[in-house]
C-alpha cells in the first residue's frame, strides 16, 4: 500500500495539472508553503529524534552532507524539487539531467518511510504539487504526451524503489540511520527553500503564514 500511494501521488499531480489547467505556477505558492512547512515539521518532530537515538558524533556530518548533496542536485534540476522548472533549459527530448537529479532525490525520500512514522503523508503532500508543477511546465513546453507520461512513470517509481531498497538489502539496513540523516539534510534544504521562496520580496502574507502554521500543527498532532 505504501508503494501504491507513493507512486499514485505523482499521477495525482499530473491529473490535477490537466483538470485545473494552471496557467501560473505561482498560484500554487500557498499549497507549496503548506507542503514545505509540513515536510519540515515532520522531519524535526519524527526523523531527528530517530537518528539521534544512537551514537551522535557523526550524525551532524551526514545531515550536512544531505544539504550539500541537494545543492549539487539542484544545479542539474534547476530547483524542480521545490517548484522551479526552467523549460528553456531543456529541449523536447527526454530531460535526462532533470530526471537523474530528481530520481536521486526521490530515492532518498523513500528510505526513512516506515510504518512507525508519518513521513509517507509528508512525502505525498510534497510530491503532488511538484508533479503538478512539472506537468504544467512540460505541457507549456510542448513536450510529447508520451515523454511526459514516461518521465512521470519512472519518477513515480523512484521513491517506492528507495523504500524497497532500504527494507530488503543488508547494507541499507545496516546504515539506515546514516542514510536517514542524509535524507534529513535533503528535506531541510528543500523545505526551507520552499518556505523562503514563498515570501515574495520578504513581505508578510497572512494566507501563506496561516498555511505554514496549520501544517506545523497538523504535523505535531499526527
TrEMBL record:
Q: Tell whether Membrane is among the UniProt keywords.
A: yes
Swiss-Prot/TrEMBL keywords = Membrane, Transmembrane, Transmembrane helix
Q: Where does it reside? A: Membrane
The topology of this chain with respect to the membrane is: Multi-pass membrane protein
- What Gene Ontology terms describe what this protein does at the molecular function level? zinc ion transmembrane transporter activity
InterPro entries, per this entry?
ZIP
An example GO CC term for this entry is: membrane
Where are its TM segments located? 6-22, 29-47, 59-76, 119-139, 146-166, 178-196, 203-221
Coiled-coil regions in this chain? none
Pfam short name (any one): Zip
Q: What is its main location?
A: membrane
Keyword Membrane tagged: yes
Question: Which protein are we looking at?
Answer: ZIP Zinc transporter family protein
Q: Which organism is it from?
A: uncultured Flavobacteriia bacterium
Amino acid at each position: 500500500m505504501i508503494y501504491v500511494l507513493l507512486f499514485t501521488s505523482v499521477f495525482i499531480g499530473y491529473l490535477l495539472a490537466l483538470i485545473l489547467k494552471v496557467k501560473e505556477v505561482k498560484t500554487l505558492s500557498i499549497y507549496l508553503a503548506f507542503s514545505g512547512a509540513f515536510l519540515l515539521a515532520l522531519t524535526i518532530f519524527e526523523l531527528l529524534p530517530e537518528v539521534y537515538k544512537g551514537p551522535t558524533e557523526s550524525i551532524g556530518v551526514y545531515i550536512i552532507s544531505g544539504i550539500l548533496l541537494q545543492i549539487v542536485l539542484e544545479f542539474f534540476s534547476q530547483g524542480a524539487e521545490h517548484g522551479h522548472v526552467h523549460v528553456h533549459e531543456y529541449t523536447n527530448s527526454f530531460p535526462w539531467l532533470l530526471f537523474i537529479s530528481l530520481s536521486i532525490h526521490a530515492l532518498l525520500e523513500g528510505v526513512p518511510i516506515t510504518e512507525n512514522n508519518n513521513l509517507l503523508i509528508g512525502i505525498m503532500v510534497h510530491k503532488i504539487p511538484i508533479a503538478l508543477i512539472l506537468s504544467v511546465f512540460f505541457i507549456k513546453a510542448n513536450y510529447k504526451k508520451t515523454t511526459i507520461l514516461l518521465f512521470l512513470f519512472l519518477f513515480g517509481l523512484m521513491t517506492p524503489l528507495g523504500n524497497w531498497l532500504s527494507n530488503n538489502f543488508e547494507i541499507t539496513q545496516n546504515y539506515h540511520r546514516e542514510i536517514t540523516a542524509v535524507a534529513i539534510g535533503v528535506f531541510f534544504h528543500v523545505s526551507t527553500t520552499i518556505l523562503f521562496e514563498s515570501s515574495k520580496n520578504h513581505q508578510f502574507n497572512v494566507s501563506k503564514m496561516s498555511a505554514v502554521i496549520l501544517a506545523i500543527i497538523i504535523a505535531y498532532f499526527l
